[in-house]
Amino acid sequence: MSLVLRASHIAKQYGRTPVLNNISMSFEEKGIYVLMGDNGSGKSTFLRICALLEDPDGGSANYEVNGTLLPRDINLRRRISLVLPGVGAFNTSVHQNVLYGLKLRGIKGNDASRKAARAIDFVGLDHKKEQNALTLSSGETQRLGLARALAIEPEVLFLDEPAAFVDARNREIIEEIIRNLAGDSRRTVIMTTHNRRQAQRLSNRLFFLENGNLRPA
Amino acid sequence: MDYLAEGFLRAVRLILSLDRELTGIILLSLKVSGLALVLATLLGLPMAVAIGFKRIPMRGFIVSLFNAFMGLPPVAVGLFVYLFLSRRGPLGFMGLLYTPSAMVIAQTILAFPIIVSLCHAALISVDPVIRQAARTLGATDPQAAIAVVKEARFGIMSGVMAALGRVMAEVGAILIVGGNIAGYTRVMTTTIAMETDKGDFELALALGLILIGISLLINLALHLVQQKGVRKLV
């Protein structure tokens, strides 16, 4: 019953500039897929299309379970998640931030608190759970983004530049979190980075996005 | 100067004695303006959300229109509401003229554009990544819009307070549509205007002091709300 993403002939252009050019790829194996590419190469666009947040101009991102195509509805969207580069922390406590996705799924009370506490602990923010999320450092904010996604246990998790603009210590912590996240055999992690060393440290499968095309490393 | 001091003292005595007429007028003022504010918020906030998030034609023009209507002359609003509610008007059959309901309608019309404009400004100042983040966590479009409203809560509260300040101090519209009937549609501002005309400053001064007090309280609340919003980030 595992969720498989199939990107088929995805094309996207902004104005007259083509960004993605007929990209097809299946993410059948679990583990960490890393997409590398220069700034503006279309990595984030590809992730947003695959996370069903943006429509492509051509092609489609489809999800299947045992070969059955799933409808692109809210139920499917709640089985996947994307951690944005800016995270988008809500102006409330760390704990409430992590509870948000659980509440959307109708998980409340002790069950929600337990899941949130586990996710916060997983990213090492336990001592800051009552602190306002907008007062966190950029590294801690990235970890909060991971905790929010982790709490809802997505089967496919997209991470858009999860360790950009953070210090070395936070980068190490974030990389460790990602490794642990992908350790769950039911989960596929698809992330972007332009840091080649980080890509090599983390990836099970590494791809390059160049001139709108995806190629294996 | 004596009559001023004497009037002031008598006004304070009237307030301290919790005069029945005085308290009746104050309660009606709070009821009319409070109800108008609730109605204007219930209508204005969804309108602000729609303008902010929906793809609607002529959005810029609509926003400019609401901004312009923030300064609607109360007397003109009173006149139009009067014409609609008067016996020969299209809504004359409802028999609302010279009732507190007519005053609520007039004040709702005055507060509505203020709430729409200030709430819209608060909503569009929220980082667009918040809406995206809500969607990445599984929010539907309406749930993502609610997340943005929550983020804009301090700005929205400021808008509501500003509208309350405006309607509490308003006299022109409610005088025209309410008729200033003693014990029925007489509120603080219309009483002050009438008592001043009569040269009887005792009640006018007492109400004036209370109105200034309420105005200060609204501004204090506004300040605290804004400070709370800022403090959260420090």
Describe the structure.
The complex is a heterodimer of chains A (217) and B (234). By secondary structure, chain A is an alpha/beta fold. Chain A is built from 7 helices and 10 strands. In chain A, the strands form 2 sheets. Chain A has a 6-stranded mixed β-sheet, with helices on both faces. A 4-stranded antiparallel β-sheet of chain A has the order 2-1-4-5. Chain A is globular and about 45 Å long. The model of chain A has no long low-confidence stretch (mean pLDDT 92). Chain B is mainly α and 234 residues long. Chain B has one domain: MetI-like fold (Orthogonal Bundle), CATH 1.10.3720. Helix content of chain B is 78%, strand content 0%. Chain B contains 11 helices and no strands. In chain B, helix 1 packs across helix 11, helix 4 packs parallel to helix 9 and helix 10 runs antiparallel to helix 11. The longest helix of chain B has 34 residues. Chain B is globular, with a radius of gyration of 21 Å. The mean pLDDT of chain B is 91. Chains A and B meet through strand 6 and helix 3 of A and helix 6 and helix 7 of B.
